Amino acid sequence: MALGEIHFNYPAVFNFGDSNSDTGGRVASGLESISPPYGETFFGRPSGRFCDGRLIVDFLMDAMDFPFLNAYLQSVGAPSFHTGTNFAAAGCSILPANPTSVSPFSFGIQIAQFLQFKSQVLQLLDDSTKSRRYIPQEDFFCKGLYMFDIGQNDLAGAFYSKTEDQIAALIPTILLEFETGLKKLHDEGARNFWIHNTGPLGCITQNIAFFGKDPSKLDRDGCVAAHNRGARLFNLQLHALCSKLRGQFSDSNIIYVDVYSIKSDLIRNYAKYGFEYPVTTCCGYGGGQLNYDSRVPCGHTKILDGVPVTATGCNDTSEHVNWDGIHYTEAANFHVASRILKGIYSDPPFSDKMPFLLKPKY
């Protein structure tokens, strides 16, 4: 295979990220539990995903004829890690966690977990033949695909305490930490990198509810303009980092995926893609354009003004882009994955190398 060529015949996938690609890590850690109606669209019950069904990463695995990735921290049910594992955890950031962080599993910790995982796998391969069908083979670590979808929480969290200029000044520090992690993986033999940029933060319902009370703060799509400017600046520098690393990792393939453009196009042209509500929360409380109240999370019952109220799911999740005020519905995730797999939103593009078609499975 020539450098820069994308083939999709990877023996395993190792994923790093936040709730956009967490397939059960945070729940398995015991930091949080999730209740119905999470998971009900596809799994019939909560699956550890912050969604009504499948995530983008699930659809990408399906397209490559892989089983869904098991979370690294999942210990129940004899999970198989033969075709890779998922280190992503909801709430995590690229920058190291601090005592007020939503999640302790920052990017650096996920890299450390990978190093521990690899070390244990290689030891098991030497010591036991029974385990071989549950763990990757040694060459899977250099031939596998390393996927990343992380950084959203660094930016979103910063907006609660920093100005837009301060956040812009923080982005190089965030990306230096990301670069450090990528270099550690490269040192360990990783050669195939698939990197998602961050989506339009200003179009997340939670951010519109908190930061968009003043209509002058919103853009033409009804999204918080400052958040989207921050996301675009982050993505510009992330793209530049990927280009720089291609020069440094001359033996590697680095694919930059423009998720921002796909998601912002979906928000702007939602009706064209069969959706009815671009920012109205499916599983929320409060009604109105947003149907979101941060005091009443999806699936929870809280007492407001002495009255019990519940954030319940909507009748048809496929009409909504937003699931719970923060995360996308399965229908929206399917749309994003379908667009990713067209190949035209990637650098380098791979539209002429597609060996598969994504199959709708609602």
UniProtKB/TrEMBL annotation:
The keyword Glycoprotein applies. GO terms for molecular function: hydrolase activity, acting on ester bonds. It holds the Pfam family Lipase_GDSL. CDD domains: SGNH_plant_lipase_like. InterPro entries: GDSL, SGNH_hydro_sf, SGNH_plant_lipase-like. Keywords: Glycoprotein, Hydrolase, Signal. The keyword Hydrolase applies. Belongs to the 'GDSL' lipolytic enzyme family. This is GDSL esterase/lipase. The lineage of its organism: Eukaryota, Viridiplantae, Streptophyta, Embryophyta, Tracheophyta.
